[in-house]
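Possible regression after last week's pipeline update?

I re-ran a chain I had predicted before the update to compare outputs. Posting the input and the new output here so someone can diff against the archived version. Not blocking, just want to make sure nothing changed silently.
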Amino acid sequence: MSDIRRTAARPIAALGLLTASAIALAACASTPAASDAPTEAPADETLTYTWDRNTATEEGAEPVFEETTVEVPADPQKIVVFDMAALDTIGALGGEIAGAPLESVPDYLEGYLADDAFNAGTLFEADLIEIEAQQPDLIVIGGRSSGMWEDLNEIAPTIDLSMRGGFLATLEENTTFLGEVLGAQDEAAAAIESLEGGIDDARAAVAEAGGSGLGIMVSGGELSALAPAPKDAQTPAVRGGLLYDVFGVEPVVEDVQAATHGEPISFEFLLEHDPEWLWVVDRDAAIATEGAQAAEVVLDNEIVNQTTAAQEDDILYLDPTAWYIVFGGIDTTQRMIDDVLQIAGR
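New output (post-update):
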């Protein structure tokens, strides 16, 4: 029985070793007594998934980790997914999603839902009665839905594919593991190789363009600066640091977090520090805030228009769903690569 441990990060370059030695299907068909004897049906195949689960229940409490192991069925026929990055990867590898928080599934991932996919609740609250009635073979959670593990695991094997150990390590490990679950190991390896090459191309384009950059998020007419993620950062900080940590953007401020104290920034902050490249995530668009002004409108003002980025037409808008809601998975990572490649040739 194979064992996946999600307690340490591995770089993408370790893919070959990981697929060759860390994951193997567990059971084999019995050997017949004679050449003409009937072969017994193979035992159910499973994979063992082990991770450190945060068992703290109070909001804001210090994490309390407990090693948790779940036996995952190979080739599950009915999969319920609450983590959008996992939904992305399962679909891209040929799997089909039987149930999900349907209102939270981005348009570009809806094709991975079964024709009769059922609504499993929301990202924060599962419809336990409906899920139990549907009798899934596997449930996948992560990020916002991690707190539902105990209830969901009573219904079917439930695994938490939250980001741990950084974006690239998580992308590799989750893609590799889901490839094993779905019997799509070759497809998983090819996807990781392609994304690795795409990220290298994007980093090269950023380096060739040169100059300083700043990622900002626009929400409710206010701006916040995205900062490189500190070591062992949790999901929100990892998400905010992707531009710098994964794609190599050189921040205009050496220590963005210290410069902003984690507080909203002003338009004057942009003019004062004057990044040559401005990368923009429209949070209101990502979460479909009613009546919100688009980020382009918010930034079209006298102060911002004095910045180098505005005058050189180097304000680059990022796919808000990819960068704020999903930020992981095969298709979504390719969208992020394409977003960064906007810098090429400008």
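Follow-up from reviewer: compared with the archived run. The longest strand covers residues 46-54. Marking as no regression found.
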